[in-house]
Amino acid sequence: MRISVPTEVKNNEYRVALTPAGVDDLARAGHDVFVQRGAGEGSSMPDAEYEAAGATLLDDPAEVWARAELLLKVKEPIASEYGYFRDDFVLFTYLHLAADRPLTESLVADGVTAIAYETVQLGSVDGRSGGLPLLAPMSEVAGRLAPTVGAATLLRSAGGLGLLMSGVPGTRPARVTVIGGGVAGANAAVIAVGLGADVTVFDTNVQRLRYLDDHFQGRVKTAASNPLDLDRAVVDSDLVIGSVLVPGAKAPRLVTNDMVSRMRPGSVLVDIAVDQGGCFEDTHPTTHADPTFPVHGSMFYCVANMPGAVPNTSTSALTNATLPYIRQIARRGWKDALRADAALAAGLNTAGGTIVNAGVANAHGVELAPLEAALA
Questions:
Q1: Which residues are catalytic?
Q2: Domain end (from 282, 309, 336)
Q3: Whole-model pTM?
Q4: Which of 64, 13, 61, 73 is nearest to 41 (CA)?
């Protein structure tokens, strides 16, 4: 199969969809891998390593897209890339279509077969949705980054209230509220506790809270999420980290404008869920070049590609997770690969000019096409 890896063009996105080791793996299996020249430089992975691994380097992004039977990206295509869409290749990347109507409409109009990393989902266990194996590594990175960027934004020079996360003897540490105890939230709690903060994690799943309580051995407070208790905790927080996820769908807006208006001036809110629309009412996507904006005297950090700040780590973690699925698509073709793997089939968002993911269809108020028809 012809597999292409273009350079990411989103603002301050330094990751690349495949490491040289990933290229080597696919090339050894007999596939042709095309990598745009310079695609890995932002991740400290030079062209020479890709070429040595068996990739063919191309200069023109249009040619990279045109050669692809399977095109691998990190972030969703932006408007300047829509012109490369066609109906005879597979796009495999993070898409977050529930929060992006223009991209959704373009993929449907051009008949693109698009598989989203973030909706590849393992089977349910005990009636609960299974894990998200391709979202997990970036959730881990974003979760661990969130307290770090939050601590930096709490500095007075960054617009924060001038509070040290750990405090010092005789002063209080920062109060940190993490909304959502999944992969991102748990990793945020790890770093926040390590920085010496007073941390509370909210979640609607009591079983998950029991797990976190046991895991942290009492170093983190846990709370069952309800509007009253969440309101009190947010208003009293110095740093709020939003990490709520509904796979494929828009994130619920749990922190209202009114709640923010009652927080201390200089408090900080970091929205990890911004790719899915965000879980704060006033969230809008920002970039690493201009990451924060004020709301009622508090500072919002809403960078839509947080793991892009540490691309060497992120690219390696992403390839580790995606490569087994890439192998299957390349070896079997996308239809047979999806028929053989229900988790991968759950990742299919658009095909043949239709939407086949329920969360995306609901978000945009359009008809859901059956998966079986797409795979027929």
A1: 96, 275
A2: 309
A3: 0.85
A4: 13
